[in-house]
């Protein structure tokens, strides 16, 4: 396992830099997504105090009795909103479930919005009144950050600056509050906190987790342990963006390891950016040109792609 750091870029150079800094950001960010698929972001615009408050309510929620948490697990929602307990999600082609439980929240729409009934409504734990406002605030800050990163990505892949943002407008973007319990609480031999997997969506933003454990697979197969500095955020490419860019940008395998019974509980906050369900993910011509001219993936809507992939991981 290697410890060399991931590429690091400063989002301030993109959002308030001069033209040279903007171009530098686009180049560094894009090349990192192309080479490793993961990049650390300095100055992501996420309030560190808010992040600590969110981890505080996450700790409070997951410390509730299992029966209380299960009130927020609706089998009809198949994990798309509210609580999902231990033993549910597993990586693709793997039967042993991951050692994690989580909470999902999605976008909120006004009742007269055309997509108001397209996604399940959010649910909120009544035991923790601050859960909803804090998560909603974090979701908003992450959305702003994701827009800047998607713009930089669009410029890098040679399309109009707003194309990827436009694709994600009213998409089913989900904030996941993850809890990996202390190992002594679980018994499944061979299970990992998160088995090797690739994310399904366009890009993922990962706030700094409360404990180490995340590892990214490098091109030579070795695992790189990721350790962010406080205030940094990770961005990685998901399979939908790899598809849409004809493989130019790399959806990299990653995992969360547990090293022993003494592991502390770990909390993490991935934000999975999704396109609108009707968007076609057929590879973009500019990316086909940059990847040798052969179209590698057929057209498919984000809706069909997601449905198939959720089925493969026990959430569909
Ligand atoms: O816990 C982490 O740091 C990463 C989680 C992750 O990769 C996922 O939920 O897809
Ligand atoms: Fe992931």
From TrEMBL:
Per UniProt, the keywords (alphabetical) are: Iron, Metal-binding, Oxidoreductase
Q: Could you name the domain of life of the organism this protein comes from?
A: Bacteria
Coiled-coil annotated spans: none
- Give the pathway listed in the UniProt entry for this protein: Antibiotic biosynthesis
A Pfam family reported for this protein in Swiss-Prot or TrEMBL? DIOX_N
The molecular function terms in GO held by this entry are: metal ion binding; oxidoreductase activity
InterPro entries given in the database record: DIOX_N, IPNS-like_FE2OG_OXY, IPNS-like_sf, Iron_ascorbate_oxido_reductase, Oxoglu/Fe-dep_dioxygenase_dom
Ranges where the Fe2OG dioxygenase domain occurs: 170-275
Q: Which family, according to the similarity comment?
A: Belongs to the iron/ascorbate-dependent oxidoreductase family.
**Protein's name in the database:** 2OG-Fe(II) oxygenase
Q: Which source organism does the UniProt entry give?
A: Prochlorothrix hollandica PCC 9006 = CALU 1027
Q: Write the lineage as a comma-separated list.
A: Bacteria, Bacillati, Cyanobacteriota, Cyanophyceae, Prochlorotrichales
């Amino acid at each position: 396992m290697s410890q060399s750091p991931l590429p690091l870029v400063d989002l301030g150079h993109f959002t308030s830099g001069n033209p040279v800094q903007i171009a530098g950001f686009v180049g560094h960010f894009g090349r990192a997504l192309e080479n490793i698929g993961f990049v650390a972001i300095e100055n992501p615009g996420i309030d560190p105090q808010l992040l600590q408050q969110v981890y505080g309510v996450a700790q409070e929620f997951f410390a509730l009795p299992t029966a209380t948490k299960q009130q927020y697990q609706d089998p009809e929602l198949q994990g798309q909103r509210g609580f999902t307990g231990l033993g549910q999600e597993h990586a693709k082609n793997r039967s042993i479930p991951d050692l994690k439980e989580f909470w999902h929240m999605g976008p909120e729409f006004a009742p007269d919005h055309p997509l108001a009934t397209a996604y399940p409504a959010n649910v909120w734990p009544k035991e923790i009144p601050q859960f909803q406002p804090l998560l909603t605030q974090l979701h908003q800050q992450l959305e702003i950050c994701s827009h800047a990163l998607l713009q930089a990505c669009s410029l890098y892949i040679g399309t109009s600056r707003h194309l990827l943002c436009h694709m994600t407008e009213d998409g089913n973007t989900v904030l996941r509050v993850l809890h990996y319990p202390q190992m002594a609480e679980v018994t499944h031999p061979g299970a990992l906190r998160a088995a090797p997997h690739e994310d399904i969506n366009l890009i993922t933003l990962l706030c700094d987790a409360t404990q180490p454990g995340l590892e990214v697979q490098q091109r030579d197969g070795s695992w790189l342990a990721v350790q962010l500095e406080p205030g940094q955020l990770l961005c990685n490419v998901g399979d939908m963006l790899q598809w849409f860019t004809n493989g130019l940008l790399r959806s990299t395998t990653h995992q969360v390891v547990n090293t022993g019974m003494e592991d502390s509980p770990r909390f993490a906050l991935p934000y999975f950016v999704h396109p609108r369900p009707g968007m076609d993910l057929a590879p973009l011509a500019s990316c086909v040109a940059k990847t040798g001219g052969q179209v590698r993936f057929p057209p498919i809507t984000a809706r069909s792609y997601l449905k198939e992939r959720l089925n493969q991981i026990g959430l569909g």
